[in-house]
Design a protein that fits this description.
31% helix; alpha+beta; Aminopeptidase; 8 strands; three-stranded antiparallel sheet
């Protein structure tokens, strides 16, 4: 038996952002086992990846917001996840994005992140949000720039390496 909980469903032009499903969990566990997951600390085994899925889903219960699981609207195929990552040990929420390698270079990360960010500003009153990006992750830095974010410089986080904190414009920039 399942009980309704988790993310609402919102849409952009090409993407549907919503709650986690079995299909999304499977796609993430498959992704986490690959070298492409190295900016998330991977590759990871299925058990660790499952814990990551559960942590993302649990934020909706604990915080009332979290990450959306992204699908291509036309095909229904899982595309990744995007939204607000705010575990209990962090002092502020982070706008994060992940699009699976087979669906990259289509503008999905920017489209989904903008949709999630605007939803968070409008619905939750959050902002301005930040994103933590490994300096070697040039693809995510390009997305941050397209979203209008600027690099505030090095930031020590809960991972062993230093990342850069990118600050997004606030809701007033989109009014």
């Amino acid at each position: 038996m399942r009980f309704p909980a988790g993310a609402p469903t919102i849409q952009s032009d090409r993407l549907t952002l919503g709650p986690v499903s079995d299909m999304h969990a499977e796609a993430f566990m498959d992704f986490a086992a690959t070298e492409a997951s190295h900016f998330l600390g991977g590759p990871s085994n299925r058990e660790d990846a499952w814990v990551g899925v559960a942590m993302q889903a649990g934020q909706w219960t604990l915080r009332g917001y979290g990450t959306f699981w992204v699908s291509e609207t036309e095909t229904g195929a899982p595309a990744g996840r995007v939204g607000i990552f705010h575990p209990g040990w962090r002092t502020e929420p982070e706008l994060s994005w992940l699009i699976y390698p087979a669906l990259q270079k289509r503008g999905y990360a920017t489209e989904a992140a903008l949709t999630a960010r605007d939803w968070a500003y409008r619905t939750l009153g959050l902002g301005p949000l930040m994103s933590l990006i490994d300096p070697a992750n040039t693809a995510s830095e390009r997305v941050a720039k397209r979203l209008g974010a600027w690099n505030e410089g090095p930031h020590r986080t809960d991972v062993p390496n230093v990342v850069n904190r990118w600050r997004h414009p606030g809701a007033e920039a989109h009014a």
